[in-house]
Amino acid sequence: MASVLIVNDQSLQRLGLRMLLAAEPDLTVVGDTASGAEAVRMSVELRPDIVLMGGHRPESDDIETIRRIARPSHLTPVRGPAEPGGHQPRVLVLTSTHEEAYAYAALRAGAGGFLLEDATSDELTAAIRVVAAGDAVITPELTRALIDTVRQERAPRPRERAIGLDTFTEREHDVLVAVASGWSNAEIGARLSIAPTTVKSHVSHILAKIGAHARVQAVAFAYEYGLVHPAA
User: Fold this and answer.
1) Cα gap 131→214, rounded to integer Å
2) Range with the lowest mean pLDDT among 23-27, 103-107, 175-179, 190-194?
3) b/e per residue, 112-123, with b = 16+ CB within 10 A?
4) What domains are defined for the chain?
5) DSSP letter at 154?
6) How far apart are CA 5 and CA 16, in angstroms?
7) N or C: which end of the chain has fewer CB within 10 A?
8) Which 3 state secondary structure label does DSSP give 47?
9) Alpha-carbon distance 209 to 169, whole Å?
10) Residue that wins the pLDDT comparison between 107 and 199
11) Average per-residue pLDDT in the chain?
12) DSSP annotation string for 61-78
C-alpha cells in the first residue's frame, strides 16, 4: 500500500485526484493541501510514500518545497527527533513539456519523477507505484527537453566540483552510464552479467556518492560530466 499526499492549488484538481486514487486498492490518500509550507509540515507529520505536486506555479516556491520534502534531514520533525535513515517521501511532479527549466530545477532539488499534466489516469497511478518502489519516472517527451537544459547549463568550474569521476569504481561507472542511457536494472544486469539486486546496490552507492535521492538525478549528473551524450 502506497500513501500519497496531494499538493495542488486548484481545489477541483485536488478533489479529482483524491477520487481517482481512492479507487485504487493499493493506494491511499493521507491528505491534500494547496500550500507548499503546509505540504512540508504534512509530509513530516503524515509520512506519505509519495508527494504528488501539481504543475509549476510561477508565483510559488515549489522548488524549495520539493527540496525540503525530498531532504527531510533538513527539517525539524513534528513528532520527536529525526532518525538517521528514516522515512523519506518521494516527490512526483506533474508538469508540461514547456517547463523544462522548472523540471530540471525540480530534479536537482530531489524530485523522483515527472509526468505530463495530460497523462491518463492509468499512467498516473502506474507512475505513483513506480516512484513509491524507489525507481524514477520521466516521460519520453520530457527527456529530450531535460537533456537539452542540462547541456545548456553553465558547466561547473573545477573548484565547484566536489565529486570527481574517480570517486566511482569501474563497475559503478558502467552502471551510471547504463542508467543515464535509460536501461532498467534488469537490462543493466543482463548486459553487464550481474544480478539485478547487485545493480540496485550499485545504483544506491552511486546516489549516495553524488548526494542524490533519485535515479533521474544520476542521469543529470552523467550528462553534466559528459559520461553520455544525447543522440543527434
Assistant:
1) 9
2) 103-107
3) bbbbbeeeeeee
4) 2-150 (3.40.50.2300), 157-224 (1.10.10.10)
5) P
6) 13
7) C
8) coil
9) 11
10) 199
11) 80
12) -HHHHHHHHH-GGGS--S
